[in-house]
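Hi R.,

Here's the chain you asked about this morning:
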Amino acid sequence: MLKEKDEELAAANKILEEKERGLAAAKAKMDEMEAKRKEANDEADAMKKELQAEQAKSRAAENLINSLKGERDRWEMDKDK
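And the predicted structure, written out as tokens:
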């Protein structure tokens, strides 16, 4: 009877070890996926910041062009004099 219980315990421990290996593999995969998600989020944040900077430059350039339109008209009139 003791031998049977030892065999049952050994079988249960073997199953436990297999499940623990599976759990460790799942945790490793989850950690890998979490790292990829963080990397993707960081890249998206960087791209958003870059986009905002480019939009600000574009607005500044548009404002400059619009402010110089009146000057062009004045230069054209001065040129014709």
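The first helix runs from residue 2 to 80.

Let me know if you need anything else.
M.
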